[in-house]
Amino acid sequence: MAKDKGTDKIIRQLKNEYYKNWRKKNPDKVKKAQERYWNKKALEVLSSKEN
């Protein structure tokens, strides 16, 4: 089955809508994930400055 630009666009829109609704229903999980991400980035910056 070949995909074309139109199909890709529709798939992307459906995924965006799904994840938007998921984030709306799970704000606590989103917040925790963002905290983990930024803590990890901060540790990466600190470790790169030490080297």
UniProtKB/TrEMBL annotation:
Protein name (record): Uncharacterized protein
High-level lineage: unclassified sequences, metagenomes, organismal metagenomes
